[in-house]
Design goal:
This protein is 52% helix and 17% strand. By secondary structure, the chain is an alpha+beta fold. Strand 2 and strand 3 form a beta hairpin. Helix 2 crosses helix 4.
Length: 126
């Protein structure tokens, strides 16, 4: 199982989020979910297979901890989405910026008339 398949399930994502806060036993993790402890154990086994979680036996208990390096394929994929170019070419944005500056310059250079609330227009000069 790869990391993408592992995080496709909402229970496994919730387990990963919980383990991001620190290691936990199966019984503790099962107490936080409305599913049985064997079901939580099966999800944890899949997370171990995907390399997202490590399991350590301590006496009769098994403690699980997040393995952040296992998420690197997902992180790489998400980072690749951020490098996409905008749907509008940058040259179009440069042309728009030039047009806005030109229009602003023309407006400042041309006298405008505006009303002051009275019936007579008030003339403004730049």
């Amino acid at each position: 199982m790869d990391a993408f398949e592992a995080i496709a399930d909402p229970v496994r994502r919730a387990l990963l989020q919980r383990l991001a806060d620190g290691p936990a036993r199966v019984v503790d993790l099962a107490a936080e979910h409305p599913i049985s402890r064997p079901a939580v154990s099966r999800h944890l086994r899949m997370l171990v297979e995907a390399g997202l979680v490590d399991a350590e036996d301590r006496g009769r208990e098994r403690h699980y901890r997040l393995r952040p390096a296992g998420l690197s394929p997902v992180r790489t994929w998400v980072d690749g989405l951020g490098g996409r170019r905008p749907p509008i070419p940058e040259s179009a944005l440069d042309g728009l910026d030039l047009e806005v500056r030109r229009t602003g310059r023309e407006r400042r250079a041309t006298p405008t008339t505006r009303t002051t609330g009275t019936d007579q227009p008030d003339q403004e000069t730049a």
